[in-house]
Every structure is written in structure tokens, then in C-alpha cells.
Amino acid sequence: MKTHKEKMKRMLNAKMLTGVLCLLFLLTSCGDDDSGPSRTDLLVGTWELDEINGSNLQSGFTVEITFERNGDYEEDINANGEVERYTGEWEWNKDEDEITIDYDQNFADWELDVEELTADELELDDGSDTYLLVKK
């Protein structure tokens, strides 16, 4: 016959085992399954140029850049109501920290380091200038 002390130990062990199993379940179910949006998810959309090299754009001058999921690229430059549109294709490098834009017009490819990319801000650097864009 088991003593009261042995029964209490057995109940305590069962409770501890249940507690440990519950804790393990909670920790594994709260894992990082939802890693959030991909860099492409963050990049796709229309961005407005806010600053170049830390300075605001001059009055009457706006630039909108659109990155499409399928790789299409559009850049609208509005200078006092006159809009010029440039189109092309964009792609990530393998580490997704650089974007290359291949213009449809007869321009050289534009390589941009992605310094920062959030849901609201995009900071690009082409080696000579830094561009801060905000999501529209």
C-alpha cells in the first residue's frame, strides 16, 4: 500500500509533467511561422521621392516610382506639371539588398543599394546619391 507521501509525490510529478507539456506546446505554437512580409511584398507598390541626400525636393517637382510584382517598373517625373514617364524592369540581386533597373529607354542600367526597406520607407543609394522614398 502506498503512503500518502508517495501519492502526493506522484500527483506532483503528474502535475509538473502536465505543466511542462503545456509550456512546450505554447512555446512551439508561438513560433516564428509568420515571418511577415517578404522584401518583395514591402517593395511592391508606388513610392514618392521625399528627399535626395537629406534635402527635400524643390517646389513643383515630384517623382513617383512604381515597382510591380511581375518586375515592371515605372518612374514618373513631374516638373511643374510636365510629366515624363520612364519604364523598364526591376530585379533583386540574390541577397535582396540591391535592385537593378533595366530601362526600356536607351539608358544604362541603374544599380541601387537598398539601405532601408519598411512598409512606409525606402532608402536607396546609387553610390553618389541617397534617395528617401515614402509609400503612397
Word description of this protein:
- By secondary structure, the chain is α+β, with helices and mostly antiparallel strands.
- Helix content is 23%, strand content 45%.
- It is built from two helices and nine strands, in the order ααβββββββββ.
- It has an eight-stranded antiparallel beta barrel with strand order 1-3-4-5-6-7-8-9.
- A hairpin with a 4-residue loop joins strand 8 and strand 9 (130-135).
- The longest helix is centred in the first third of the chain and has 26 residues, at 4-29.
- The radius of gyration is 27 Å and the shape is globular.
- The protein starts with a helix and ends with a strand.
- Mean pLDDT is 85; it is low at 11-24.
What topology emerges from the helices and strands here?
Blueprint: H1 4-29, H2 39-43, E1 45-52, E2 55-56, E3 61-67, E4 72-79, E5 82-92, E6 98-103, E7 110-117, E8 121-125, E9 130-135
Antiparallel strand pairs: 1-2, 1-3, 1-9, 3-4, 4-5, 5-6, 6-7, 7-8, 8-9
Keywords:
136 residues, alpha+beta, eight-stranded antiparallel β-barrel
Shape summary: globular
pLDDT average, as an integer?
85
Helix-and-strand structural type: alpha+beta
Q: Helix share of residues? A: 10-25%
How large, in whole angstroms, is the Cα Rg?
27 Å
In short, what is this structure?
23% of the residues lie in helices and 45% in strands. The protein is built from two helices and nine strands.
